[in-house]
What does this fold into?
Amino acid sequence: MSDNESGGSRAVSALFSQGRLAAIPRKAARRAQLLDHLARTLFQQGRDYTEREVNDAIRTVHDDCPALRRYLVEAGLLTRARDGSAYRRAV
It folds into this structure.
């Protein structure tokens, strides 16, 4: 079984090299695994984050923070205040 077919956190770890995300997965299911992992490991529940804090957290694993931030919000894993002033982990 290839890394792409295996499930769980081991599959997510295969996306990283030396602590950095090698690439954002194109396949929706694979990207969903990654996003869930990022939401749970980068953001605490019950805490508000500024956009800058979200970007800084994402940058610890990948440079394309606007794309990953957008994916996290679209997936419902981060909520965004209507005025964009705050983000919060949803799960």
Notes: The chain has a mean pLDDT of 89. The first strand starts at residue 16 and ends at 17.
